[in-house]
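fyi for ur records
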Amino acid sequence: MAGHSKWANIQHRKGRQDARRGKLWTKIIREITVAAREGGPDPDSNPRLRLASEKAAAANMPKDNVTRAIQRGAGGTDGANFEEIRFEGYGIGGAAVIVDCMTDNRQRTVSDVRHAFSKHGGNLGIDGSVVFQFQHCGQFLFAPGADEDKIMEVGLEAGADDVMTDEEGLIEVVCTPSNYAAVKHAFTDAGLEPEVSDVIMKALSETELDGEDAQKMQKMLDALEGLDDVQEVYTTAVMDETE
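which gave:
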């Protein structure tokens, strides 16, 4: 995979997210609101809310914002009417794309997502058209040079399913969504802090893109991620460093 550095792509993505901190807070508030509405206001008994609250802390969101979002969701009022929609489609080179949204206006969201796909050379698919190419799982990524033996020992003991290291030394740990919190807390207790950790849709295969195709794909992903109603975008595309 010469030129397709997973570690470089992770750093690039984190940089784009940091630049969009205001939008990130909006995404997290929506996630907290819906999580509290569906599973209750207590993070100890609501794993989804606990994860969203941890994301808020990592994004340096004020605690008052988190509390208000939980209250809105648990009370079912003032902004708690968001619904979740998942879109599936294809990008450049047939790369699979999943777009998870939260919206209070389904018609607007469908129109915006469809436009972002078509404008940038992709096309929206039907439900089930690409989701089989992804695995719903917890993922932890550790930078090259991290203590692989310790990560493996702690992760597997806490319930992780697999620990993998690529040619760059990037260490990836995956687990079931239900074991995510236990694995995360085990790493924290052991003093092991991943660069990235989340419950995601992990691509089971990769679609490698270079040059102009990579640039076009990145523009499409940026357009999708820039939509107000979009929470997460997942893709099988792996791109070289074009920027």
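DSSP finds eight helices and ten strands in the chain. thats all i got for now
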